[in-house]
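Re: [ENG-882] Designed sequences occasionally contain unexpected residues at chain ends

Forwarding the minimal case from QA. Structure tokens:
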């Protein structure tokens, strides 16, 4: 686990750490206290990834195309 706050991680960083957390939990070679901490960190990482994917989906959905397939404009999502 890194010390980086989950909310400051990129999607890629969160996914990489989440994969490591899952690997540790699947091996089952950690003490109960550490397993609980890993689970909690994993849950936060999962939520971070889901939130980032949702934002990306909203941005893609905001792009509309005219009959000719050309973008007609975008709608800002979350002020971006």
């Amino acid at each position: 686990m890194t010390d980086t706050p989950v909310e400051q991680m990129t999607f890629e960083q969160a996914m990489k750490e989440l994969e490591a957390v899952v690997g540790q939990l699947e091996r089952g070679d950690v003490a109960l206290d550490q397993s609980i901490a890993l689970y909690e960190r994993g849950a936060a990482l999962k939520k971070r990834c889901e939130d980032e994917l949702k934002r990306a989906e909203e941005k893609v959905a905001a792009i509309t195309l005219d009959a000719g397939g050309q973008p007609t404009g975008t709608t800002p999502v979350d002020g971006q």
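QA comment: On inspection the terminal residues look reasonable. The beta strands are 64-65, 71-73. Proposing we downgrade this to a documentation issue.
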